[in-house]
Design brief:
Number of helices: 6
CATH class: Alpha Beta
Bound molecules: coenzyme A
Number of domains: 1
Structural class: alpha+beta
Helix content: 25-40%
CATH topology: Aminopeptidase
């Protein structure tokens, strides 16, 4: 399993995925604040006063985590609009011995329903399996979050079961379903991802 992941940009047909810089703070705050009702419904960290200091702390932690190989957070931009922050997507190794990792994402609310999460996740799975060398990647989805379940289904994740009261969101413990994708499953589906326009290259 690879430790030092290059910090360059990764691309998909419509998107650029790149590590965070300090200068992303304002665009990140704007994106989080404009998406607060949907984000705070499913995720533990967004709050109504999310501001520049929260974004700068996230970016600083993200840069350290990348250097230490603990997590790889990508900012999402479109090729046509390099300014608007479309969302975040991350992959983090959870066990070096088991070559296991996890993926997580969010997309700003005024850009959902356009396939952005699926396209970005396809590219991050490529990072997970082909660059980091993971053997198994999981995704945890809050029960009731159909949009995120659809992303998992479209990418060919297999639903494994239920994690009871897994994450505390706004004072309530939410059950999550656990989904996984194995390296051989990714390799089998990779050409299909490209055919569906989620990845550039070898179809
Ligand atoms: C979940 C999320 C990332 C999806 O982003 P997105 O860019 O809209 O995802 P995609 O467009 O790639 O796919 C969404 C799919 O869900 C479907 N969908 C969306 N809302 C739905 C709903 N209420 N019921 C059923 N299907 C729904 C869409 O139609 C689409 O499926 P399709 O391609 O078969 O039509 C986004 O809604 C989000 O950020 N939500 C808040 C944070 C969050 O939940 N993060 C994930 C935590 S696991």
């Amino acid at each position: 399993m690879r430790r030092g992941l290059p910090a360059g940009m990764r691309t998909t047909p419509r998107l650029a995925l790149r590590p965070f810089h300090r200068r992303d703070a304002e665009a990140l705050v704007e994106s989080v604040c404009s998406s607060l009702p949907e984000l705070s419904r499913w995720l533990p960290w967004p709050h109504p006063r999310y501001g520049r200091s929260d974004a700068l702390r996230f970016i600083r932690d993200s840069q350290t985590a990348w250097e230490e190989g603990r997590a790889h957070d990508f900012a999402l931009r479109s090729h046509t609009d390099g300014v608007t922050h479309l969302g975040n997507i991350s992959v983090w190794p959870t066990s070096r011995r088991e070559q296991a990792g996890e993926v997580g994402y969010w997309v700003r609310s005024d850009h959902t329903g356009q396939g952005i999460a699926t396209e970005a996740a396809a590219r991050v799975l490529q990072v997970a399996f082909e660059e980091i060398g993971l053997h198994r990647v999981v995704l945890r989805v809050a029960v009731g979050n159909r949009a995120s379940e659809r992303v998992a289904e479209k990418l060919g994740f297999v639903r494994e079961g239920l994690l009871r009261k897994e994450v505390l969101v706004a004072g309530t413990w939410l059950d999550h379903s656990l989904w996984s994708l194995l390296d051989e499953e990714f390799r089998r589906q990779r050409a299909g991802y490209a055919e569906r326009g989620w990845l550039v290259g070898r179809a």
